[in-house]
Design goal:
Elements (H helix, E strand, L loop, with lengths): L8 E6 L5 H9 L17 E7 L3 E7 L7 H12 L7 E7 L5 H12 L4 E6 L8 H11 L3 E3 L8 H11 L20 E5 L13 H12 L3 E5 L4 H7 L6 E4 L4 H7 L6 E3 H9 L2 H7 L11 E5 L11 H14 L4 E5 L14 E4 L7 H13 L4 E3 H8 L3 H5 L4 E2 L5 E2 L1
Parallel strand pairs: 1-3, 1-4, 4-5, 5-6, 7-8, 7-9, 9-10, 11-12, 11-13, 13-14
Antiparallel strand pairs: 2-3, 15-16
Helix pairs in contact: 11-13
Length: 408
Amino acid sequence: MKGRDAKPHIGIFGRRNMGKSSLINCLAGQDVAIVSAEAGTTTDPVKKSMEIPGIGAVVMIDTAGTDDTGDLGKKRVAKSREIFRQIDFGILLITDNHYDEKEEEIIAHFDKWEVPYLVIHNKSDLSPLLPRIQGILKEKFKQDVFDFSAVNAHNREELIDKIREAIPETAYLSKSLVGDLISQGDLVLLITPIDDEAPEGRMILPQVQAIRDILDNDAIAVVAKEREIDVLMKRLQPEPALVITDSQVFKKADASIPDHIPLTSFSTVLARYKGDFENYLRGTPKLSELENGDRILILESCTHQVSCDDIGRIKIPRWLSAFSGKTLEYEVVAGLNKVPGRINDYSMVIQCGGCMITRKQLINRLKPAIEAGIPVTNYGMAIAYMHGIYQRAVAPFVKIDSDSSTYL
């Protein structure tokens, strides 16, 4: 299952025939999920885009029943478990006052991945919630249980209010990419090469996001290819308050942009915006400590057509091997696919900017490596470090001490 949508992700979990698909249809106000009285209708996790009043566009993930049986059923359950690290908010569905270790296992996964959640007792029209079950969950998990029926949905608006209150604002309120670095009327120069990897007829998402953010902050965006920069810098008045470049031409941009003008990359901006920037700052310098035989894990957030000069699969491995002077092994994992082997098998993790996934998905993607003490960095910061311009790339966001280490 690929993380291709940056809207907040809400996962619905529970046993078979709890009414998970019916709940999605109820919240959406239309039939977007297949509903059947036969247990096990939903097999693989299915994503449904919809609107929730007060939150906006979200992605609901309908999962297979956690009590599925047989060899195929176990695979479906395992697939559903992968969803916990991809979601911003979770819903545990129970019915007929049935609660035991299956439900506790789901709650344990919510806790492991730090996912806020809501417990809903569905089909209350058939069997109202008993105070005993409410009391157990309240005592053990500090969780109220919301009594609900997706069939009559008389308290649907109250449920939506509960979801809106429980889902973290960080999942749907966007902070500014560069708003704290620029002022009204400032000119911001964006260096955007058009090469084989550029999509036909359009710009890549980070470039579009940067333009919109600049305009939202009442500043002026100027966009140019790298070969126009030298001439353009002689003509621009006033000079740019900030320059953002594609990582692949960072070295050219560094030579062309005067030292007193802040310069960074789209990937570094994204690293601060939605990545684990603090751990990137700690991990990036570890690129200098790699040894022969070390394995490098490169994480892409999306799947795309691979070109002969692909940034993650070709350029970064080539640059890193030359920079380190070591014989290294590389593994590239696209989308949110599972990492092969054990995370401890790797000496460094290099994550892309993550423009196609949510911050929660990106943070959880890196969490196993960070917990294992494995250094992490991202494309832009790694490229800047390997080309000797790392300090300039992060300088707009952090202070750098005399020992070349960074602090927030």
